[in-house]
């Protein structure tokens, strides 16, 4: 988990992040998921090279992560805490709360060739 700094005053909280400082890579892409139906599943893939940090900016959801040997469920529900996913981690996202917003910081631009979309292929290469 990555715990980001916060500056608080009577007007509210401000959290910030910098690539290669708070985030362990240079940020090349940012995307976010929103309006996700509560019974939907996202993810279901791994990356050969890409690293990511995943945040719940609003609401909550579950990340199921698997490195080929160990599996874990991580609940994200705090916009200051991001889950760092190195390459070669299978991930599934589910149990979205109503109004959840998932933001992802990525180390590379989108590249379909970087994806494992079949779990069996991922396990074979781990």
TrEMBL record:
InterPro entries for the chain: QdtA_cupin_dom (IPR008894), RmlC-like_jellyroll (IPR014710), RmlC_Cupin_sf (IPR011051)
Protein name (record): FdtA/QdtA family cupin domain-containing protein
Keyword Protein transport assigned: no
Organism encoding this protein: Tritonibacter scottomollicae (Epibacterium scottomollicae)
SUPFAM superfamilies named in the record: RmlC-like cupins
Domain Sugar 3,4-ketoisomerase QdtA cupin: 1-124
Keywords: Plasmid
Superkingdom assignment: Bacteria
Coiled coil: none
Gene3D superfamilies per record: Jelly Rolls
């Amino acid at each position: 988990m990555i715990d980001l700094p916060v500056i608080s005053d009577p007007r509210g909280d401000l959290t910030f992040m910098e690539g290669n400082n708070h985030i362990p890579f240079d940020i090349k892409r940012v995307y976010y998921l929103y309006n996700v139906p509560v019974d939907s599943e996202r993810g279901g893939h791994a990356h050969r090279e890409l690293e990511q940090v995943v945040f719940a900016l609003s609401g909550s959801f579950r990340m199921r992560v698997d490195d080929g040997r160990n599996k874990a469920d991580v609940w994200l529900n705090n916009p200051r805490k991001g889950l760092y996913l190195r390459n070669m981690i299978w991930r599934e996202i589910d149990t979205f709360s109503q109004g959840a917003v998932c933001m992802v910081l990525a180390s590379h631009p989108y590249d379909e060739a970087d994806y494992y979309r079949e779990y069996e292929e991922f396990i074979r290469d781990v």
